[in-house]
Amino acid sequence: MPHLGKISKKRRIALFVSLIVSICLVLGIYLYTNDSRQFKSLTEELFYSELSGNTLSLHYTLAFPENFGIDEPAHLPSYEPEPDNGEGDIRAMLEGLSEISPERLSDKDAYAYELLTRYLELRLKGTAYPYYSDPLSPSSGMQSGLPILLADYTFRSAKDVEDYLHILDQTDTYFDGLIQYEKEKSENRLFMSDASAGKIIEQCCSIMDKDALSSGTHFLHTTFEERLDAMLQEDVITEEQKSQWVSENDRILTTVMAPAYEKTADAFTILQGSGSNDMGLCYFPDGRAYYEYLLAATTGSSRSIAEIKTMLFNDFQKNMSAISSLFLRYPELSSISSLNTAPFPYTSPEEMLEDLKNRMADDFPAFPASENTAFHPSYTIKSVSPSMEDYCSPAYYLTPPIDDMSSNIIYINHKNAPDALTLYTTLAHEGYPGHLYQTVYSQLYMNQENASCIRYLLHYGGYVEGWALYVENLSYDYARSLVQEKSPLTAAYYEACRLNRNIQLCLYSLLDIAIHYEGATPAKVQAILRELGITDQETASAIYTYIVEEPVTYLKYYLGFMEFTILRNAAQRIWGDDFSLQRFHRFVLETGPSDFQGLQNRLIS
Fold this sequence. Notes:
By secondary structure, the chain is mainly α. The chain is built from 23 helices and three strands. Helix 15 packs across helix 17. The protein is globular.
């Protein structure tokens, strides 16, 4: 047996220290990985539960859900009253998060943790107001939103077609749930005004037009067949399958969906007269508190209403001063109707989008490369169906699934044919460098960084629409550069159009606060508008009614735009000579989607 000899005191101390270091290292690795595992498990469970219960949301989020372990029967969720309005579920999620230390997470997961915590805390506040939302509002309700989502439901496989038909077959149950919710709103004296209810009734009748349904020319007929024809050409389906599915689609539209809309119209006819308020939210019990919640939840801004109002007022004054100076410099602008401006150099949407892509190259980063290969998503310009023109925005972009961003769709509403400048700036808002560019860039980046799946579910209206309005403002500069050399007056006119649009959106945002938080009456709003030169009573009434029906909508755009402007100014101060628009835009795109508190924190960290 070999002689080991005595271990010296120094040696014993060294071995003891080494043992302690090893234990600490193992314990540290365990603690860090355990927190990461917990966070991953919690967020994945939330991701799967949110998507698996709603096939429509799932399909627009994931092109291939089977790759994510989701394989559920097609399901369109229906409203069911909850005893605690979902408060218990949110508290349970927050409790689960509280058991995780964000300091032990990776940087990207720590940020996702921060955003999710704030998101849930805000939603928890919202559970106090279960009957204040309007899923069937006249301008953005599901009675018009659902057909749009169905018309663009992508068919990649036979299963997609079967899922679509199952969803269509559940529209009666879906609208039954919404009717039940509206009845409960009525019982709580929170139902909409008679005028708004009348619009819903009219929409339900016109959207599911009986003549179009009986003749097979409804857009839910034609768009369905167009998608099947594309699959047939690619040999994905057979002629027999197509014929069978066309018959089934026709049956469901006429025997399930159309009666569901008719039943909704009947329910609203009965509920008409039960509304107790046709003015701002503050005239409802807890209306002011709900408005504060809704403003924060919709815009992603944590500022107080007093601060927001001051910001808006100062911005309004600044823009009014700027447009006055412009008119002094170019007095010809006062005769807009007879203004001889240079023709816009592009006429088609495709030409305009290509020009925008070229002009934005110096100010915005290229899409993140995939395996050293540049990514070039395609896009299609479509026209809104004539039967939906009255209920759709002037234009809108359909967000692609996070696992298939190659194809993108922008819809143009031709009801009020936009002039060339308006079409150009609208395409900047919806396409490049607006929603399409922002969405594809951020999702590509998050995919490459293996970001937490929960980031794809957190929606921030102020980030999305604020960015689109921010880049729309930049697009007026691009438009001016197209005509500046040949016609400085036309360039000045474009700047006047930009300022006028901002003045209008800022004014409507101020009116939103005045109506919903301060109780401005129709007469008060008319007086305000009259002072600003809007004297037509019908116009003033339409402005008032839209803001009453769609609270915080204008603020989602304009406050979001102002938050990005403030953030850019802060970046200029912090980065100094190292600031560039491209660097700032890269920061925003690679940090978001986020609330503005998160963006500000990341900028200064």
